[in-house]
């Protein structure tokens, strides 16, 4: 019996071919990915940093240093410590100019914000066009020197058109810039005329953020226009009004150009604001050390007043609830 042994070859059965997934791209970590753009960021902010350092940081630090020295234009500064501060405390003309500045600031801020608020409310109620609002801001774009020159001619006691009208009514002109009683109020009126349009546009923008449904609810409750203005408009405008007041206070405290052109601090120092006194000390008497001390005092005063106004008026809050 022949036995046939048939060797069968082993067959390997393979399944469908599988392809391995491609390797994931390496992700750069956050700091590494930003490192390539850092030089671009520094390049973009470099002009601003350079301008800040050259025109603000260095002059401020230099002024603080000079405020503790005796420095005249032709001699190097000599360190005197607190001598300038003692002189400042005992300087009656400094306190007089500070009082004149405070008087001017109060008149400018109260009249300016009041007139701007009324104007903005009227514009909001009437719904005037953008062209009218653009025309209102034109006085703000005029330089202070031009404003002072034009109004000086108009208020001239002999040739000014305003005084000619006053003379026809009262029989005698008004010495707007030549009277102790009229000098500061006249300068404040010029400042109000120049800034009123800009302030009104700011307040007008704040009025547009108040929902109309609030006024509709007030009318349904039978509230009058005055009651809605007092109980709705003013509380809801608090952040905008605080900003406008602070801007007016800072601008009025730093007034110089209209005083220099119109009155030059006269008559008899009646309109001698602090900026005029600092200018006279620095460029009239060349006492830059003492002028720097008064500038430092003015800076600290502005910072104190600003933060006090922000804290007392709760600038970041509004009665929306």
Automatic annotation (TrEMBL):
The chain crosses the membrane at residues 39-61, 100-123, 135-154, 236-256, 288-308. CDD domains: TM_PBP2. It is a multi-pass membrane protein. Keywords: Cell membrane, Membrane, Transmembrane, Transmembrane helix, Transport. InterPro entries: ABC_transporter_permease (IPR051393), MetI-like (IPR000515), MetI-like_sf (IPR035906). It is found in: Cell membrane. Residues 94-311 form the ABC transmembrane type-1 domain. It comes from the Bacteria. Residues 1-11 have a biased composition (Polar residues). The keyword Ligase does not apply. Its main location: membrane. Belongs to the binding-protein-dependent transport system permease family. This is Sugar ABC transporter permease. The lineage of its organism: Bacteria, Bacillati, Actinomycetota, Actinomycetes, Pseudonocardiales.
């Amino acid at each position: 019996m022949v036995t046939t042994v048939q060797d069968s070859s082993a067959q390997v059965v393979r399944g469908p071919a599988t392809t391995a997934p491609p390797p994931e791209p390496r992700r750069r970590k956050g700091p590494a990915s930003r490192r390539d753009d850092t030089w671009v960021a520094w390049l973009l902010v470099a002009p601003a940093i350079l301008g800040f350092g050259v025109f603000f940081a260095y002059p401020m630090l230099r002024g603080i240093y000079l405020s503790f020295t005796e420095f005249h234009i032709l001699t190097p500064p000599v360190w005197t410590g607190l001598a300038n501060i003692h002189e400042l405390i005992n300087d009656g003309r400094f306190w007089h100019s500070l009082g004149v500045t405070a008087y001017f600031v109060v008149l400018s801020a109260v009249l300016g914000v009041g007139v701007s608020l009324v104007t903005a409310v009227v514009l909001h109620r009437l719904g005037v066009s953008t062209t009218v609002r653009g025309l209102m801001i034109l006085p703000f774009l005029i330089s202070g020197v031009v404003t002072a020159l034009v109004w000086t001619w108009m208020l001239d006691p002999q040739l000014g058109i305003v005084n000619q009208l006053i003379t026809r009514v009262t029989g005698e002109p008004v010495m707007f810039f030549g009277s102790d009683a009229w000098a500061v109020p006249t300068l404040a009126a010029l400042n109000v005329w120049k800034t009123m349009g800009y302030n009104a546009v700011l307040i007008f923008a704040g009025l547009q953020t108040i929902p109309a449904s609030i006024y509709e609810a007030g009318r349904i409750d039978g509230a009058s226009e005055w009651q809605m203005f007092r109980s709705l408009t003013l509380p809801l405008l608090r952040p905008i009004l605080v900003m406008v007041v602070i801007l007016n206070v800072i601008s009025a405290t730093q007034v110089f150009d209209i005083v220099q052109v119109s009155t030059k601090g006269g008559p008899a120092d009646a309109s001698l604001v602090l900026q005029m006194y600092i200018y006279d000390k620095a460029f009239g008497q060349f006492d830059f050390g003492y002028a720097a001390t008064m500038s430092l005092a003015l800076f600290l005063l502005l910072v104190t007043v600003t933060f006090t106004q922000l804290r007392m008026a709760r600038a970041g809050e509004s009665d929306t609830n």
